[in-house]
Predict the 3D structure of the following.
Amino acid sequence: MGGLLAIFLSLVAILSLLPVYTIGGTTRSYEFNIQLQNMTRLCHTRSMVTVNGKFPGPQIFAREGDRLLIKVTNHVSHNISIHWHGIRQLRSGWADGPAYITQCPIQTGQTYVYNYTIVGQRGTLFWHAHISWLRASVYGAIIILPKLNVPYPFTKPYKEVPIIFGEWFNTDPEAIISQATQTGGGPNVSDAYTFNGFPGPLYNCSVQDTFKLKVKPAKTYLLRLINAALNDELFFSIANHTLTVVEVDAIYVKPFDTKTIILAPGQTTNVLLKTKSIFPNANFLMLARPYVTGQGTFDNSTVAGILEYETSIHMKNLPLFSPILPSLNDTSFVTKFSNKLRSLANAKYPANVPQKIDKHLFFTVGLGTAPCAQNTTCQGPNGTRFAASINNVSFVQPSVALLQSHFSNKSNGVYSPYFPISPLHWFNYTGTPPNNTFVSNGTKLMVLQFNTSVELVMQDTSILGAESHPLHLHGFNFFVVGQGFGNYNPKKDPKNFNLVDPVERNTVGVPSGGWVAIRFLADNPGVWFMHCHLEVHTGWGLKMAWLVLDGKLPNQKLLPPPADLPKC
């Protein structure tokens, strides 16, 4: 009898580790322990905030339709929150993760379970910390497979490999941003870029920390590329190999071949890599280095990994080929690349572009300045502080969460519902900048009725220099219907919009010295953050939030907050 009981108990223990199957999907549980871990790169060892002691953090695997329960426990002195970047979070805004927007952060010793279902999405996304600069080391891949027995709309790969681009800092990024906040100047830049946490052989004391992609000849590999870097758009290429782009931001695209891809922070791209038909007697470098448009300092270095062909004989001293990457400021390449991205727009994967627009909005995005505190000098332009804004409103982070304030009807004194629909003062946005570069400050939200169809034009400005800004919208995907250089012309430019098969994504680069037009349907009630995904600009205030009101039907309303929602 005792033996049978022991077998029964061990079966129960095994079953408790397996995913739970529910109607329409599986429930998958993960445990994230936020803990300090000593990591060494470039001969520098430092204590880093990590998930489960890993850098990058653990991968999350799911299928379209699955429910995820991710229990996050904070064992460090920093407050923490985790964002599931690109997940729609339909009616589950409490699980979105940006600190002081949808939740108060998880304090030391506290636990919060992120509970959400993946609806109508499949592909590569990622998760990262969404408070201060902690995402420098707190990030990992989210891999969403199609529903069971649903094939990819491209060649089935022999193997799938996630490659996450990141940044390594020899000193604590929290100390860097803390110092920059005090001085009002630009923060120090990273010391290296990384592939899956490894800087590679082009840095001092780093040959041992090189990511190697081992492949077999005549096979097709799916590389899931993720840019989790803090502050840099990155070019990526593999020597002597062509990549076929098949997906961006977890949306399938019309496949096209390219030698190089460009990836802004917050963006993901899936590419097919077809290996050479026979052993090539060589190794091949994979490189990534920044695309730079601004005038500030940046990490001008290159991360390298090695593509190695497996062979039964041990080959020594094989030649090592290197790819040629575009120049650092090659905006022409970036424009051509983004113009090639098109939705599949077929019966199975339609592009539901809003055709009739309820609300036309025009946002300027760019840098500016703020006055220094009395009797002090700051390290920004002409003794001021660096700032950034949308429609000249530099976002002030509240001390309580916006979503809770809205849900409990306690928004008074927390936020204003009157975000400007266009700039209050018109100027030649991409021409000579105005003399007054000061921004205004506020916690302002753009309020939308449920199911409003929105067209938003985002215009870069030349204040403190034109610059590319990767804007990320939480809670939605949007269609990129047009882009151009110079000042947006509302009479001429819409005639060239692509309303048939525009790319659909969650993060888009506002071109340096130009504009981008996006369309989306506000079908997800809640408070949704929109911000530049260059962390330095977010910190300066290049962010705002949308408040999408409940619809009339029960399935159009935000669900009530979970019992364990963190308190401020």
Notes: The chain has a mean pLDDT of 95.
